[in-house]
């Protein structure tokens, strides 16, 4: 893998983790939609700074992802994108104080094994 591809994957994962953290932080400030009040609900979403930040980061990630797909076969890129799962698990634990149990760690190890297998095909 070239340095550009590694860097793009790292940026993609960082964007995904940052976006998910922003969505989680913003979700607590959004009211539950009332029947027939979807317009007000949508306005409350775009008035929540964390949610707007999350969307902006996801737009950046989309642009990075398109570049990755121009360089790497989809059958390789998509499984490698699973690194974002590990990043979100770690960030939710370290930054949000969420508890991770044995099943989380076992799943993370299986994901890592799959990533190593796919990365070896490059």
TrEMBL record:
Pfam families: EamA (PF00892). Gene3D superfamilies: 1.10.3730.20. GO terms for molecular function: transmembrane transporter activity. Residues 34-118 form the EamA domain. It is found in: Cell membrane. Keywords: Cell inner membrane, Cell membrane, Lipid A biosynthesis, Lipid biosynthesis, Lipid metabolism, Lipopolysaccharide biosynthesis, Membrane, Transmembrane, Transmembrane helix. It is a multi-pass membrane protein. The chain crosses the membrane at residues 46-64, 76-96, 102-120. This is Transporter. It comes from Ancylobacter novellus.
């Amino acid at each position: 893998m070239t340095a550009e591809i590694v860097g793009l994957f790292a940026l993609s994962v960082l964007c995904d983790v940052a976006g998910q953290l922003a969505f989680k932080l913003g979700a607590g400030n959004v009211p539950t939609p009332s029947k027939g009040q979807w317009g007000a609900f949508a306005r409350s979403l775009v008035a929540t700074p964390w949610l707007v930040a999350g969307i902006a980061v996801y737009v950046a990630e989309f642009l990075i992802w398109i570049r990755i797909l121009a360089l790497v076969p989809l059958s390789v890129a998509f499984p490698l994108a699973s690194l974002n799962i590990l990043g979100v698990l770690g960030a939710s634990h370290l930054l949000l104080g969420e508890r991770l149990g044995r099943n989380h760690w076992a799943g993370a190890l299986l994901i890592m094994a799959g990533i190593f297998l796919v990365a070896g095909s490059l």
